[in-house]
Write a structure and sequence with these properties.
Blueprint (H helix, E strand, L loop, with lengths): L8 E10 L4 E9 L2 E6 L9 E4 L4 E4 L1 E6 L4 E2 L2 E2 L4 H10 L2 E8 L7 H12 L6 E7 L5 H13 L4 E5 L10 H14 L2 E5 L3 H13 L6 H5 L3 H17 L4 E3 L5 H12 L4 E3 L3 H5 L10 H5 L13 H11 L14 H4 L19 H10 L6 H15 L17 E11 L18 E11 L2 E5 L2 E2 L16 H13 L22
Parallel strand pairs: 1-4, 1-5, 6-9, 9-10, 10-11, 11-12, 12-13, 13-14
Antiparallel strand pairs: 1-2, 2-3, 5-15, 7-8, 15-16, 16-17, 17-18
Helix pairs in contact: 3-4, 4-7, 7-8
Bound molecules: N-(aminocarbonyl)-beta-alanine and zinc ion (3 copies).
Keywords: Hydrolase, Metal-binding
GO cellular component, one term: cytosol
Enzyme class: hydrolase
Length: 503
């Protein structure tokens, strides 16, 4: 980008900068996409574009740790693609998504990665990166993990304990994948639900004549999630592999993670906007489309105290990052399961509304302060996934991914006005304080006062290096400190019983 291009110099003036560690009044001066100075009354060259942030908060753009744009899934494709999904993201104050390369068993992970990148690059409106799902295991896959880490900028791999016969891996394979992740400095991520039990329970519910969306929750209640979470954490701990539990949906599963952290395990939990903003009573809604619109795995929980419980764990630092699991399907797609809840494509929206929902339910309700808000929506993700301080902080040298946020303005979430392609919104009617006034992506204003100034393909792929300090410092120390050692003792010289066949 040449100096003098309209967006090469930008001054965000008069706002309060909010980072994860502190807030302070300051201007932010940006040159060629990078934050150059943060301070009061900065003098800037002529021709600098000015964004007036008087009375507003100036925060690092959100990082959504968990999306599935245009995912081929359950007989259809997620309707929000890398264009509509990332455009919606920037309108809500998210400036980076980490999506999942997720292909069928038997498909080369490298080919899958190339396919997904081919889909994303021409469409993305904000920066993005990829986790890669490991849905099968072989020596070839093991080699491909190393290649992805070394040359493709991937440092996180997701495995599934659910979706039996589709994506699910057994414990023996998980043990091998975790060892590989540990050796190459990657973070193992887990979809934690007991897939065998779910398969049996789905059949039991259908035999009982329960075909509607309520059956989805009834066949995979909290303990199905908590058991798998415990197993995932236990196996990871056996091999000293760091573990990240995606979409933590229940109090029971969250408790497993909190207890493991108390014991010193290197484990992170990711609540999502859906689980923080709404609940599983929706599965009992009389309108089938409404109920089906909330179907996702693991399900939202009918215990209505769950969202606040998860929010408090974000406040206390027990939960780390927030994503959305954005994976959207229109009514006609959800209707693939109109007679059988097990065939309803799993997934909900969130990429556009995550920041507002967390502000409303977290900050406006007094559970999070503004700095913690930044930590759980941006900074912690940058640290865990090893892109800090390139992302996740407003400081000289960092990418200028910045939002100007009006904490006093309100907006009402609705499918009628949202920017996502999907025809339903799980947060319909929610009035949220906290509105994105302006979104800046790599120093360029991409959204301001409700208008987009961005084109498909403007976003960039963000490669991520392995061995994130935030994750791996303790892991590497433990490799030596906790190495099992045999007891030195004299050999046993007494009699040894002979088995029958040896006599
Ligand atoms: O329901 C969900 N979560 N859909 C997307 C796939 C996944 O498991 O993350
Ligand atoms: Zn999942
Ligand atoms: Zn309805
Ligand atoms: Zn997901």
């Amino acid at each position: 980008m040449s100096v003098g291009a309209s967006h090469s110099r930008l001054l965000v003036k008069g706002g309060k900068v909010v980072n994860a560690d502190q807030s302070f009044e300051a201007d932010v001066y940006i040159e060629n996409g990078i934050i150059s100075q943060v301070g009061k009354n900065l003098s800037t060259p002529g021709g600098t574009k000015v964004v007036d942030a008087t009375g507003k908060l100036v925060m690092p753009g959100g990082i959504d740790t968990h999306t599935h744009m245009q995912l081929p899934f359950m007989g259809t494709f997620a309707v929000d693609d890398f264009y509509t999904g990332t455009k919606a993201a920037i309108s809500g104050g998210t400036t980076m998504i980490i999506d999942f390369v997720l292909d069928q068993k038997g498909v080369s992970l490298l080919e899958a990665y190339d396919k997904w990148k081919g889909w994303a690059d021409p469409k993305v409106c904000c920066d993005y990166s990829f986790h890669v799902a490991v849905t099968w295991w072989s020596p070839q896959v093991s080699e491909e993990l190393l290649e992805l880490v070394t040359n493709r900028g991937v440092n996180s791999f997701k495995m599934f304990m659910a979706y039996k016969d589709v994506f699910m891996l057994g414990d023996a394979d998980l043990y091998e994948v975790y060892k590989r992740c540990r050796d190459i400095g990657a973070l193992a991520m887990m979809h934690a639900e007991n897939g065998d039990v779910i398969a049996h329970e789905q059949k039991r519910m259908l035999d009982l004549g329960i075909t509607g969306p309520e059956g989805h929750e009834m066949c995979r209640p909290e303990d199905v999630e908590a058991e798998a979470t415990n197993r995932a954490v236990m196996i990871a701990n056996r091999v000293n592999c760091p573990m990240y539990i995606v979409h933590v949906m229940s109090k029971a599963s969250a408790d497993v993670i909190v207890e493991a952290r108390r014991r010193g395990n290197v484990v992170f939990g990711e609540p999502i906007a859906a689980g923080l903003g709404t609940d599983g009573t929706n599965y009992w809604h009389k309108c089938w489309r409404h109920a089906a619109g909330h179907v996702m795995g693991p399900p939202l929980r009918p215990d209505t105290t769950t969202p606040k419980y998860l929010m408090k764990l974000l406040a206390s630092g027990d939960m780390e990052c927030t994503g959305t699991d954005n994976c959207t399907f229109n009514g006609s797609q959800k209707a693939l399961g109109k007679d059988n809840f097990a065939k309803i494509p799993n997934g909900v929206n969130g990429v556009e509304d995550r920041m507002s929902v967390i502000w409303e339910k977290g900050v406006a309700s007094g559970i999070l302060d503004e700095n913690k808000f930044v930590a759980v929506t941006s900074t912690n993700a940058a640290k865990v996934f090893n892109i800090y301080p390139q992302k996740g902080v407003i400081a000289p040298g960092s990418d200028a991914d910045i939002i100007v946020w009006d904490p006093n303005a309100t907006r009402t979430i609705s499918a009628k006005t949202h920017h996502q392609a999907v025809d339903f919104n799980i947060f319909e009617g929610m009035v949220c304080h906290g509105v994105t006034v302006c979104t800046i992506s790599r120093g360029k204003v991409v959204y301001e006062d409700g208008r987009f100034t961005v084109s498909a393909g403007d976003g960039k792929y963000v490669p991520r290096k392995p061995f994130s300090n935030y994750v791996y410092d303790r892991v590497l120390k433990r490799r030596e400190a906790l190495k099992p050692v045999p007891v030195e003792r004299e050999p046993y010289t007494g009699a040894v019983y002979k088995r029958k066949e040896e006599k």
